[in-house]
Design a protein that fits this description.
Length: 154
């Protein structure tokens, strides 16, 4: 199981519908594979916009695992009545402290830092998810992101 009862209390997603695990380590193009899986798993459960936002978040998480975590391992999904949780595991042995809030776009002093390559994806993840977290686990680092869906035909 990806999530704890505390995680699920953070946002009400309803009853668990399905679980899916995919080994991305053996994929030649893990980001593309992950994106395709988002569309397959969420079709009919979320609106097109919600699916595209979830795909963008998954793109970012998987790309970060490849770039900063030494590769990507497993990706696991829990699909619920009103949302989903994705977890991406990488073999990285730790992670640097993460920003807790996004910088306001109208902050002139912070504009330069907004243009810096590193860290923008974390702001994107925070803005498009109901909640997200990073956890050190036995096999590396696990990034979890939850989505609450209001569209789709459940």
């Amino acid at each position: 199981m990806l999530t704890t009862s505390e995680d699920r209390r953070a946002v009400r997603l309803g009853e668990l519908i399905s679980r899916k695990e995919v080994d991305l380590a053996s994929c030649a193009r893990p980001v593309r594979e992950a994106r395709g899986l988002v569309h397959t798993l969420l079709a009919g459960r979320a609106s097109e916009d919600e699916i595209h936002e979830a795909a963008l978040v998954v793109d970012e998480i998987v790309a970060n695992a490849v770039a900063h975590g030494g590769g990507v391992g497993m990706m696991a999904w829990e699909v619920y009545e009103d949302g989903a949780v994705v977890g991406v595991l990488d073999p990285g042995a730790g992670y640097a402290p993460l920003p807790s809030t996004a910088l306001p776009a109208n902050d002139d002093a912070g504009m330069e830092s907004l243009l810096v390559e590193s860290g923008r994806g974390l702001t994107l993840i925070a803005g498009l998810t109901a909640w997200w977290t990073v956890r050190a686990v036995e096999n590396g680092t696990l990034v979890l992101a939850a989505f609450h869906f209001v569209g789709g035909s459940r």
